[in-house]
Amino acid sequence: MVTPNEPQEARLDDDLALLTETLEEVLKSSGDPADQKYIELKTKAEQALHDVKARVSQASDSYYYRAKNAVYRADDYVHEKPWQGIGIGATAGLVIGLLLARR
């Protein structure tokens, strides 16, 4: 079940994983190999599955690259301005502590 607070990307990843698993099971299931329509559908489904896996892989690589760049920028910022980095970290810790203490 999808919760309203769940990120859209996580739901999309789950949906794609479910679709991939289902399609792989359908492709493995038996059909009449002599039936031309079955052969065409299976070929089309295999190509679609391959294309989706490739696009998901590229998107995943893109997200990883952007996250890695953000980490490097944050690291550079903290090295250039260590006291401001300490202040930001302390403020974030204080806010999180206050939020957790309210529960």
UniProtKB/TrEMBL annotation:
It is found in: Cell inner membrane. Its main location: membrane. The keyword Membrane applies. The chain crosses the membrane at residues 83-101. Keywords: Cell inner membrane, Cell membrane, Membrane, Transmembrane, Transmembrane helix. It is a single-pass membrane protein. InterPro entries: DUF883_C, DUF883_N, YqjD/ElaB. Residues 11-61, 74-103 form the DUF883 domain. NCBIfam families: PRK10404.1. Belongs to the ElaB/YgaM/YqjD family. This is Stress response protein ElaB. It comes from Pantoea osteomyelitidis.
